[in-house]
Amino acid sequence: MAELTKTPAAKEVKLADPREASIEPSTQEMILRAQKLQIETVFDRAVTMKPCAIGLQGICCKNCSMGPCRLPLPKGGIQGEDTRKGLCGATANTICARNFARMVAAGSSAHSDHGRAVAETFLSVARKETKDYTIKDPAKLIQIAPYFDVATTVEVDGKKMDRDLDEIALGVAEAAVAEFGKTGGTLSYLKRAPKPLQEKWKKEGVMPRSIDREVVEIMHRTAMGVDQDYKNLTKQATRCSLGDGWGGAMIGTDLQDVMFGSPTPLQAEANLGVMKEDHVNIIVHGHEPLLSEMIVAAAQSQEMVDYAKSKGAKGIQLAGICCTANEILQRHGVPPAGNFLQQELAIITGACDAMIVDVQCIFQNLANVAKCFHTKLITTHPIAKMEQDNVVHIEFDEHHAMEDANRIVKMSIDNFQNRGADVMIPHHKTTQIAGFGVESIRYHLGGSFRGDYFTLNDNIINGRIRGIAGVVGCNNARTKHNEEHITLIKELIKNDVIVLTTGCSAIAAGIHGLLTPGAAAVHCGPGLAEVCETVGIPPVLHLGSCVDNSRILLAATEVVKAGGLGNDICDLPAAGSAPEWMSEKAIAIGQYFVSSGVYTVFGYHMPLDGAPEFKDYLYREMENIYGGKWDCEPDPIKHAHKMIAHIDKKRKELGIDKARERVLMDMADRQALGVE
């Protein structure tokens, strides 16, 4: 084992208490193992490095070289007029709003650039420029084509006939790529939202014109000396975030479904215990499934399995970290080894032969940890390299996708023989059901012929289901790993709130046993438990990766369409949450959910406290404009009950707050109903 990244023994260093760092046993075991091996992890760094107090308040401006200008709140808070100003005169509200908008721009860029990569690959498929990707879900292609104004039928001799699938694919691909830089009109997918919501956006002037333009405009507006009105800055942040949620991210999700297949519920395992000592262990980590889809195909090929056996392994164990894990889980049943804060720990097992990364949420410290073991760390994306000399870069090209994947898997297998004897794989893993989507939820609610969201609406109206919660987002080393996610979700389902989850929150729910139908009997209130038992679904539905939050928007839209619960998303007894958020992507997601009418609560902390007026605008006034608003609550129980209180408020507004007596109907009662 190399000595390069060990903490110097002579130096007195504060270390994380494993039991205080995480509620998850395998994570605790691996933190302790890392400390015994004197290998620093994110959990230890969180103890030794404290966040900037002024940055936490959102009032540090470094947008020009006269700064950074720091505007701390005076002791005792604001008394009278707030006179704090930067060198240029920028107020605390302006600085805080600029910082917030820039987070929205960065987060939107990340998810939308993911969507762009998928759209460009799909264009290669449509043009027959690659053999490795195909159209696996033609029904989904035909479903989304009209939103891009691409015809799916053609008239021949006065009769309508199905149009050639290749022509539809090319039309959709070209239109999807154009969405990122179109020069006129607004985004095509906005028409998927409920009509009243579209009217709100139009009235407020926040209909995104193109995905890239809104990001660029935020960067312009937040440059020194441009937009100095926090309400106007928030308006542009709204437009940019909608370009992500109803644009780039939604395009990415849909075209992934078209190329790789729409997810359907399947069973898999979760946690670090999925790794196997006698197998080649390959971990894929990141967010774009273009490469990971090919890695799955290569690792499962008989040629590579035989090659692994020739090197002394019994086979190949593929697993994932972060949203790449969710992508290959929901389509192939490949198990997640962990979420964001567990990425270093997968290497610390000593059994990881290769970790293959692409973009987003990847610790640079992985390279330092890999030096202590035999692990090959392989970067694959042209925009995401690492400076350390022990990192291998194999640039992925979708035109030679399978060739690149085979090369990477072969390199991983070759490294199996370099594994040391000091291997410690935790014995913790759980079973989960994942792979839900808008279509599969519809099917589970009523089968092939009766499937619809009416069933869900009926059970919300009759009170068995109190409401809907979207619980999503990251882990944050400033909070106890997984605790906020799990405590919050358990409190929601105990109170008959069904949970839709994505991202690292979904992985946490899987690891802690909440993604099985059996969890309903253990953790749910009687109403939700009854529905889950009858329908055969878990009380927490895994809807995919972070980019798949668009599935939650579309599921909410389907609930509106099914009727009985209002005319817009803001009318629904529903709320959103990101209890352990970390990334700028979470801020972009939060803003597009708020702007779509969803009450959205974040945990940990929001960088707004230094600008009380701007904070009040996000937390209160936005509800008057869009029907949704921001909130923050670090305590997970209080957090859950804020969401429940909002759900109850919406139930009262809809007139469904009173429990309805359940009546057993005899034949005479049924006949009296009549038939229309």
Describe what this molecule looks like in 3D.
- The structure is a single chain.
- With 676 residues, the protein is of the alpha/beta class.
- The protein has 3 domains: 93-260, Substrate Binding Domain Of Dnak, Chain:A, Domain 2; 272-418, Rossmann fold (3-Layer(aba) Sandwich), CATH 3.40.50.2030; 431-654, Rossmann fold (3-Layer(aba) Sandwich).
- It has 27 helices and 18 strands.
- The strands form 5 sheets. A 6-stranded parallel β-sheet has the order 8-7-6-9-10-11. A 6-stranded parallel β-sheet has the order 15-14-13-16-17-18, sandwiched between helices.
- Strand 13 (467-471), helix 19 and strand 14 form a beta-alpha-beta unit.
- The longest helix has 35 residues, at 92-126.
- It is globular and about 65 Å long.
- The mean pLDDT is 94.
What topology emerges from the helices and strands here?
Elements: H1 18-21, H2 25-36, H3 42-48, H4 53-56, E1 60-61, E2 69-70, H5 92-126, H6 138-144, E3 153-156, E4 159-162, H7 165-178, H8 195-204, H9 211-221, H10 230-260, E5 266-270, E6 280-285, H11 289-299, H12 302-310, E7 316-321, H13 322-332, E8 336-338, H14 343-348, E9 354-357, H15 365-370, E10 376-379, E11 391-393, H16 401-414, E12 430-434, H17 438-450, H18 454-461, E13 467-471, H19 483-494, E14 497-501, H20 503-511, H21 519-523, H22 526-535, E15 540-542, H23 549-562, E16 574-578, H24 584-594, E17 599-602, H25 612-626, E18 630-632, H26 636-654, H27 667-673
Parallel strand pairs: 6-7, 6-9, 7-8, 9-10, 10-11, 13-14, 13-16, 14-15, 16-17, 17-18
Antiparallel strand pairs: 1-2, 3-4, 5-12
Helix pairs in contact: 5-7, 5-9, 5-10, 5-24, 6-7, 6-10, 9-10, 10-23, 10-24, 11-13, 11-16, 19-26
